[in-house]
């Protein structure tokens, strides 16, 4: 896609008029497959910007095809941050991202460049703009024990425990969102304090932002999603996932529960055939895009339609 000239011109002119050490800086957000990458590259070149990738999976070196990582030539055109920086067994959260991104923004400004945030990982975008609790790192063994308990005792037992140790968090959480329940218990067992304590003592963002949500008509977006999934499979997504598993990474890793990877793992384990795998990835990606759009509507962001 060629980025719409009028959008580029307006955003570039606006950012030049509002340059300061505290912002506001532009965020290009939007659902998966909407076309953020193409627009961001042209805008970054117009502004002499460096791109902060707000994508929770592109930071992992082994996840390339299934995360629609920018191609090598794009990474050469514009400097990107938080792409290909970690291995799959290295933990990274929205909190890690926010604190690291704030530091990178300062470094970008010190080089005389402009930070441009691009991505669709909603919790990462929230933490970057509004701040997040400074929760200490927790020994990974704590989460492993909780995941084992989830398998042996079931989600009801873990939620009941959370109701006892952190009733405020339990009241806010959906009991069926087991990974969020586990996260709250992980913080409690790993730090000795309930997660609500950290939420009450969160650090605000030192910067301000102007968030642009890119969108398309739903049938157009869904067709782009379907087509991109086919392109990922043609590019070797199955082989990428097979290589990850052959390298010794557990299919139970949270990061491998990502859409596009979880379904391929099911296929490789014999749960269904290749065509079913393809349709599942397409369906689950469309549902994910719908959830992203629902989340963006919660905030007073600006919406820009791409034709």
Automatic annotation (TrEMBL):
EC number(s) per entry: 2.5.1.75
UniProt: substrate binding residues: 32-37
Site (Interaction with substrate tRNA): 121, 143
Pfam families (UniProt xref): IPPT
Entry keywords, A to Z: ATP-binding, Magnesium, Nucleotide-binding, Transferase, tRNA processing
Required cofactor names: Mg(2+)
GO molecular function: ATP binding; tRNA dimethylallyltransferase activity
Reactions it catalyzes: adenosine(37) in tRNA + dimethylallyl diphosphate = N(6)-dimethylallyladenosine(37) in tRNA + diphosphate
Residues covered by region (Interaction with substrate tRNA): 55-58, 179-183
GO biological process entries: tRNA modification
Binding site for ATP: 30-37
InterPro entries: Dimethylallyltransferase (IPR039657), IPT (IPR018022), P-loop_NTPase (IPR027417)
Gene3D superfamilies from the UniProt entry: 1.10.20.140, P-loop containing nucleotide triphosphate hydrolases (3.40.50.300)
Entry's family note: Belongs to the IPP transferase family.
Subunit structure: Monomer.
Annotated function: Catalyzes the transfer of a dimethylallyl group onto the adenine at position 37 in tRNAs that read codons beginning with uridine, leading to the formation of N6-(dimethylallyl)adenosine (i(6)A).
Protein name listed in UniProt: tRNA dimethylallyltransferase
Gene source species: Rhodothermus marinus (strain ATCC 43812 / DSM 4252 / R-10)
Gene from which the chain derives: miaA
